[in-house]
Write a structure and sequence with these properties.
The chain has 2 helices and no strands. The protein has helices spanning 9-29, 47-70.
């Protein structure tokens, strides 16, 4: 088994904690910035964070939906057709 420091469960847990802390600081830093909102919604607190999160979810759902129509059988490229 590979004992790389990034594969250890303790390191993965610490990295999650650090990443969540950095993301929280980034969202909290939004309170220190003056926004010139063009619409009401883009002036709300944490707009970039929740808009990015919802956009990511939307893209994942769209990719899954499109995958239903573009899916091919496992033997699609097989030369011999019986």
């Amino acid at each position: 088994m590979d004992d790389h420091w990034l594969a250890r469960p303790a390191t993965i847990r610490k990295l999650w904690i650090v990443f969540i802390f950095i993301l929280a600081l980034t969202v909290l830093a939004d309170a220190l910035v003056r926004h010139d909102a063009h619409f009401v919604v883009d002036g709300t607190f944490g707009f970039a964070a929740w808009y990015g999160f919802l956009s990511c979810i939307g893209l994942i759902l769209f990719a899954k939906l499109i995958g239903v129509f573009l899916k091919r059988p496992d033997d699609y490229y097989r030369e011999d057709h019986d």
